[in-house]
Design brief:
Blueprint (H helix, E strand, L loop, with lengths): L3 E4 L9 H16 L3 E6 L9 H14 L5 E4 L4 H13 L3 E7 L7 E7 L5 E6 L3 E6 L7 E5 L2 E2 L1 H11 L4 E5 L3 H13 L6 E5 L2 E2 L15 H6 L4 H9 L14 H7 L10 E2 L2 H13 L3 H18 L6 H6 L1 H7 L6 H6 L4 H4 L6 H4 L6 H16 L9 H15 L1 H13 L7 H24 L2
Parallel strand pairs: 1-2, 2-3, 10-11, 12-13
Antiparallel strand pairs: 4-5, 5-8, 6-7, 8-9
Helix pairs in contact: 1-8, 4-5, 7-9, 10-12, 16-17, 16-18, 16-19, 17-18, 17-19, 18-19
The chain binds glutamic acid.
The site of glutamic acid has 7 residues, from loops.
Length: 448
């Protein structure tokens, strides 16, 4: 039999990071076994549902490439839920109960409760093994607020059955619901599906990754510049691994290697640095053109906010610097706010005291700058595109005069910052004319 799995998000928040992992595991299991993967929007909580959250769920799954074979909306099954309730009541397996309202004891409400004979229930969880519940503790639990308002427990059981779901793979927080679901499956005469409850994703302090926490949604990481594949690859290994040292997997490889039995039982700790590491691996695979399209819009926005004029050809040349320095495009804005990239686009205003290397003198700094000005003036414009050529042109001189004494004033004159990329990198990006002008400016500031 080809398995059918489902992911059943409620549109009460942006798609949760943990749900993306559950969806991935449902997807991998279905695809590995030539089955199908269903997306069901559980939109029955009218007070908390919001259309923008529903749109976000579709948007993020499409972005991740986790395409469902079929999509349902739970609210469309309302008539069917009512039909099932009617049938349960007719067979005296459920009943309408008049009782004081939970929030106001002076008011009476009608709810529908399942008759529960209080048996022991054992099911074999595909990850956690046999789990036994004494269902007496549940009593006759509520399954609907009215004939047209089924609760989650009833709706999920009916929908799973009607949609042919064979394997319910979901978060461990649902384990205790499973006893109710099995009782309902039995009352309705439905075959009980197989269950697999995934360990929770924990924050480094071992707390739950709650829905309200910043960084708990897929959208958050997407906005930070995490690539879909990096996210997929990272979450695949949160609580599962194929038992080898391999860390980078295509979706196809994951499908081939995935086994429910190798999912860990204990909670998986979320490590944002590891996610960023994955992102850097995938960024390294982008061509320069792709990387530019990925990173430069963020650089442009950040620089324009600072009033720095944009220049396309300079920006393209910063790609190698950005590749080295960022793990995600979201890193660019905070660095740019610190003035980190200004010097590629406009002349710095170097402070005369800082031009001089600590153990050197202003006269020496000026002399070194003059020498480099001479050497670089004689170079062809094209040589400036070549970082190594620029380095070679002054290396012997720098070595004989003391590298720090020579390279510090050069680097500082070009960047105006105590910390920045090496001077040859900067010169190769800004070109001959700007490099010489900055060196002359610095010498003028020294007044020597
Ligand atoms: N709608 C439920 C949730 O968002 C999932 C139900 C289930 O997987 O059984 O937690």
């Amino acid at each position: 039999m080809n398995p059918v799995t489902r992911i059943a998000p409620s549109p009460t928040g942006y798609l949760h990071f943990g749900l993306a992992r559950t969806a991935l595991f449902c997807y991998l299991f279905a695809k590995k076994n030539s089955g199908s993967f269903i997306l069901r929007i559980e939109d029955t909580d009218l007070e908390r549902n919001r259309p923008e959250f529903e749109a976000d769920i579709f948007e993020q799954f499409a972005w991740l490439g986790l395409n469902a074979d079929k999509t349902f909306k739970q609210s469309e099954h309302r008539p069917r839920h009512t039909e099932v309730l009617t049938d349960l009541i007719a067979r005296d397996l459920a009943y309408v109960s008049r009782e004081p309202a939970k929030d106001d004891a002076s008011k009476e409400v009608e709810v529908i409760r399942l008759r529960n004979s209080g048996q022991m229930i054992t099911f074999t969880d595909l990850i956690r093994g046999d789990i036994t519940f004494d269902t007496t503790e549940l009593g006759d639990f509520v399954i609907a607020r009215s004939m047209s308002e089924p609760l989650y427990h009833l709706a999920v059981v009916v929908d799973d059955h009607d949609e042919g779901v064979t394997h319910v793979i979901r978060g461990e927080d649902h384990v205790s619901n499973t006893q109710r679901h099995i009782l309902l499956h039995q009352a309705l005469g439905f075959e009980v599906p197989a269950y697999a409850h995934l360990p929770l994703i924990l924050m480094p302090d071992k707390s739950k990754m709650s829905k309200r926490r910043e960084g708990s949604s897929v959208r958050y990481y997407r906005e930070q510049g995490i690539l879909p594949h990096a996210l997929i690859n990272y979450v695949a290994l949160l609580g599962w691994n194929p038992g080898t040292e391999q860390e980078i997997f295509t979706l196809q490889e994951l499908i081939e290697l995935f086994e429910i039995s190798s999912i860990h039982k204990s909670g998986a700790v979320f490590d944002v640095e590891k996610l960023r590491w994955y992102n850097k691996q995938y960024l390294a695979r982008l061509s320069d053109e792709e990387f530019a399209a990925y990173a430069l819009p963020a650089l442009r926005t950040a620089l324009e906010k600072r009033g720095v004029d944009w220049n396309d050809s300079i920006a393209l040349k910063t790609v190698p610097v950005l590749r080295e320095r960022i793990a995600a495009s979201g890193d660019i804005a905070p660095m740019a706010e610190e003035g980190e990239f200004d010097y590629f686009f406009k002349h710095p205003e170097p402070d005369s005291a800082s031009i001089v290397q600590k153990k050197s003198t202003a006269a020496d700094a000026s002399r070194h700058l003059q020498k480099i000005h001479e050497v670089w003036s004689a170079l062809a414009e094209e040589s400036f595109a070549d970082h190594d050529r620029l380095k070679e042109s002054v290396w012997e001189y720098a070595t004989s005069e003391g590298r720090g004494n020579v390279l510090w004033p050069l680097r500082y004159s070009l960047s105006g910052r105590e910390k920045s990329p090496d001077p040859f990198m900067i010169a190769s990006i800004i070109g001959k004319h700007a490099s010489l002008e900055r060196i002359s400016n610095a010498r003028q500031r020294l007044g020597l």
